[in-house]
Specification:
Number of strands: 0
Strand content: under 5%
Oligomer: single chain
Shape: globular
Order of helices and strands: HHHHHHHHHHHHH
Mean pLDDT: 91
Largest sheet: none
Distance between the termini: 14 Å
Helix content: 55-70%
């Protein structure tokens, strides 16, 4: 998983795969949302009003994963896709990262809500346990799926040329901009948010998740769990102060992991593990 000599018997995506990845990701997502922005009446007439639960919105959200699956399958076939998906089974990392996932992220939201003077009752705002369970399920199968593309494919390829910190910053900027059209549509979850704090938060999140990704041998699961925790409806609404705390956490993470963040030696750079690497993944998982 870490950079090394390539084996011609095992397919490996090149850095140039980032070009079709971003083209597919932005083309699919922005194409769908642009139709609702510029042709709202005919699109609403044909497909219904766009909401966060609309199938076309899910398709737009899934674009990074779809792009990754297409490129991985084209390069490595079904066997390569299977080895790529095996990275979703990686779960081993330090207790510190698990502490951050399970305790640190909730603290960010509760602290942000407290500073803003909002009620600390995210889960209690739902009418019933069934409504809360449905909201949790929808969040679990929506945003976290993006990570098959962003951290599954884009981050390792960027880290072939850049130190993790710079790869994280560049990917965070791209990731944040990718969400922009959703802020122009009233029916989407982002419709009532301010873009600037969200954008800064996306960059901060990208920085935070990068050392976690590298420390877990390229796990896709842990970034997906991180992503879910950030949109978990159990936590209280804390915008925009959650962004302030996330930026502070990002600075702290860079300082603590400054050696790993500024050096490519321990950076995960492979998208499709070779046969030997896939065997190692099974033992890690």
């Amino acid at each position: 998983m870490v950079s090394g000599a390539s084996d011609p018997r095992n397919p490996s995506l090149s850095v140039m795969a980032l070009v079709p990845f971003f083209l597919i990701t932005f083309g699919l997502s922005w194409g769908i949302l642009a139709l609702f922005i510029f042709l709202p009446q005919p699109m609403t007439t044909i497909f219904g009003a766009l909401t966060g639960q609309h199938p076309l919105f899910f398709l737009a959200v899934y674009a990074p994963a779809i792009a990754a699956f297409i490129l991985v399958t084209r390069k490595g076939g079904l066997a390569g896709l299977k080895r790529f998906l095996a990275r979703f089974l990686l779960w081993r990392t330090s207790f510190g990262w698990y502490g951050f996932l399970l305790v640190g992220i909730p603290l960010v939201f509760y602290a942000g809500a407290a500073v803003q003077g909002r009620p600390l009752t995210g889960a209690l705002s739902f009418d019933s346990p069934g409504a809360l369970s449905t909201a949790i399920l929808l969040m679990a199968v929506k945003g976290p799926v993006e990570e098959f593309g962003w951290r599954g494919l884009a981050l390792p390829l960027l880290q072939r040329k850049l130190a993790p910190l710079w790869a994280a910053l560049i990917l965070g900027v791209i990731w944040g901009l990718w969400h922009l059209p959703a802020f122009l549509l009233s029916g989407t979850p982002q419709g009532d948010w301010s873009f600037a704090p969200f954008f800064l938060g996306a960059v901060a999140i990208s920085v935070i998740v990068t050392p976690m990704f590298n420390a877990s041998a390229g796990s896709i699961l842990l970034p997906a769990v991180f992503h879910f925790q950030l949109i978990n409806p159990v936590w209280p609404e804390a915008q925009p102060y959650d962004t302030v705390f996330l930026l502070a956490v990002a600075v702290l993470v860079v300082w603590v992991h400054r050696k790993e963040m500024l050096c490519r030696d321990a950076a995960v750079t492979e998208v499709i593990p070779d046969a030997r690497g896939a065997e190692a993944l099974r033992s890690l998982g």
